């Protein structure tokens, strides 16, 4: 997904750079015309407003870049504990990936892990049985 | 703002709040400088420049709402069996104000910086 947003952003950047260059050329042309008019003092000064196509290009380029940047934002996380913990329980690590598809660095897993790993919750008999089977099987995995 | 009792009944996740506001802040500081470039190219002056900034910032936040907030909010509401309220941001941000207008002041300095820079560059 990330290459789509990057492509859109770069496309908008090219459009914006072109609009900027056009506006700069337009203003230098206007100042050149004004200087020529003052030399000959024949024609009146024309209005120096920006041509409408440059204005439209600027606004469209801005909009395209914003679109690219917004689509490149990281997914938000639910702030209510019950929604967040429910999502964690249902989706696990897959619910907390960023745009590149990698799990977030601050992904903590089950928030109640330390409660469920309490010594009182450990099934000692089952672990002993598993260990006995492992020993009988020759100690292999 | 919910009261203390409501917070005890339905607690919030501080890491998620931080993550969401950081995402919003990053987006808004980036786009504010971008709007400064556009306003400088357009040659806007005084109030029209600030109006441009406010309009485009609100547009950005609305796009973020459409892309990131609305799909999840509506799916949560549908799973509860009710229709979602329009422009509801309560599942990702504490207050609607924080989402819609909280970032206007964040990017204003960057906006003015690039606005004046590009105004001067284009009209040299």
Largest interface: A-B, 34 and 40 residues
The largest sheet of chain A, given as strand count, sense and whether it forms a barrel, is:
none
Oligomer: heterodimer
Name the average pLDDT of chain A.
81
First-to-last CA distance of chain B: 50 Å
Tell me the series of helices and strands of chain B, N- to C-terminal: HHHHH
| Outline of chain B | elongated
Mean pLDDT of chain B: 82
Radius of gyration of chain A, rounded?
32 Å
User: Helix amount of chain B, in percent?
Assistant: over 70%
Query: Structural class of the secondary elements of chain B?
Result: mainly alpha
Q: Give the helix tally of chain B.
A: 5
CA-based gyration radius of chain B:
18 Å
Cα distance, first to last residue of chain A? 40 Å
Strand content bin of chain A: under 5%
Give the total of domains of chain A: 2
Helix vs. strand class of chain A: mainly alpha
> How many helical stretches of chain A?
5
H/E element string of chain A? HHHHH
Family (chain A): Belongs to the membrane magnesium transporter (TC 1.A.67) family.
Organism (chain A): Immersiella caudata
Membrane topology (chain A): Multi-pass membrane protein
InterPro entries (chain A): EMC_subunit, MMgT
